[in-house]
């Protein structure tokens, strides 16, 4: 499992499906950014960051689940419409939002313990969203399954995600506009969120490489 090959394959897929991914996710990313701007305007500078995190947890499943379903459909040669993907994603929203909240809390607690535990938890939970959507597992089981699936694979997962997220986080920090310029801030947030969705494509590629091994592993355990 070569991280460079995974990144190359994910980039190839994203570049050839960029317009479809944009149509599927950008409207909700813009809506999320607008909601964040409205929340910041209402609460002011002393707003608790937890409100923004909660808003992200509510919005993220609305576009992440359809994107995962799109990736799975395209990998099987299918071309479902956006309405069909949104409808299927909406059915998963309660469990997806709950799992997102649990994983976010775990990662934040880990980051508060000198950062390294948070990074370790983030890598071990990397496949939880894919497992919940594609295997239809409940939130806690999806988190547990992700821990099992990443056992002994921390560094390949870390290499893939670090090569995607670190440059994007640095770009976000370097280009962050003033929140007083609402339009520019909304566009920046939506654009940065869209770029970070590439991490889901990378994880999906990793997941597809590892998933065929799971049934055999389960049989051996039996």
UniProtKB/TrEMBL annotation:
Entry keyword set: Membrane, Transmembrane, Transmembrane helix
Record Pfam families: UPF0259
Transmembrane segments: 50-73, 85-108, 114-134, 154-171, 183-204
Protein name: YciC family protein
Taxon lineage: Bacteria, Pseudomonadati, Pseudomonadota, Gammaproteobacteria, Pseudomonadales
């Amino acid at each position: 499992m070569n991280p460079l090959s995974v990144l190359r394959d994910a980039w190839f897929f994203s570049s050839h499906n960029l317009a479809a991914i944009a149509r599927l996710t950008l409207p909700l990313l813009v809506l999320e950014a607008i909601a964040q701007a409205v929340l910041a305007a209402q609460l002011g500078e002393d707003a608790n960051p937890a409100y923004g995190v909660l808003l992200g947890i509510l919005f993220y499943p609305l576009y992440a689940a359809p994107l995962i379903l799109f990736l799975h459909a395209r990998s099987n040669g299918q071309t479902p419409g956006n309405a069909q993907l949104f409808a299927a994603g909406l059915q998963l929203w309660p469990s997806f939002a709950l799992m997102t909240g649990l994983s976010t809390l775990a990662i934040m607690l880990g980051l508060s313990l000198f950062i390294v535990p948070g990074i370790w938890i983030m890598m071990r939970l990397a496949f939880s969203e894919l497992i919940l959507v594609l295997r239809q597992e409940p939130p806690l089981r999806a988190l547990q399954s992700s821990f099992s699936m990443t056992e002994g694979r921390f560094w390949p997962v870390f290499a893939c995600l670090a090569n995607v997220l670190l440059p994007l986080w640095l770009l976000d920090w370097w280009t962050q506009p003033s929140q007083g310029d609402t339009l520019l801030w909304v566009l920046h947030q939506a654009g940065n969120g869209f770029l970070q969705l590439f991490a889901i494509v990378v994880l999906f590629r990793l997941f597809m490489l590892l998933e065929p091994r799971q049934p055999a592993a389960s049989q051996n355990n039996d």
